[in-house]
Structure to design on (133 residues):
């Protein structure tokens, strides 16, 4: 017989797994001045874009080779932080359908009686429910 602590243990890291999978569909729209990412709903095609975050050294030109190296490292660090923020924001707005495994926006995801799923799968399986969005 399975105890509650074993169930909880099996769910450890699920949020990180969702972020890893969501990362596969997160598109980098960054420029040298700002960091921005997008996700496309695999049902309706709606594009969500993360909040643009300005690079702290945007429009400042390094005067030495040393500063170029420093700015490049700083750019990568800030981009990674912006990427993580975008993943967390996207995780709240998109859901993965447990039937077809597509990532869909809240307007295309349904809360159903037995199992939540995308609109297309709910329609195909004759499941009733309500749209999340």
């Amino acid at each position: 017989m399975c105890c509650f602590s074993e169930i909880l243990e099996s769910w450890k890291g699920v949020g990180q797994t969702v972020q890893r999978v969501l990362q596969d569909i997160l598109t980098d729209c960054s420029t040298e001045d700002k960091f921005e990412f997008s996700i496309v709903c695999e049902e309706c095609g709606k594009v969500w874009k993360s909040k643009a975050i300005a690079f702290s050294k945007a429009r400042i030109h390094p005067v030495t080779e040393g500063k170029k190296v420093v700015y490049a490292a700083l750019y990568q660090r800030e981009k990674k932080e912006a990427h993580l923020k975008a993943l967390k924001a996207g995780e709240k707005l998109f859901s993965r359908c447990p039937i077809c495994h597509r990532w869909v926006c809240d307007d295309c995801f349904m809360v159903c009686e037995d199992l939540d799923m995308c609109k297309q799968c709910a329609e195909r399986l004759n499941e009733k429910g309500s749209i999340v969005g």
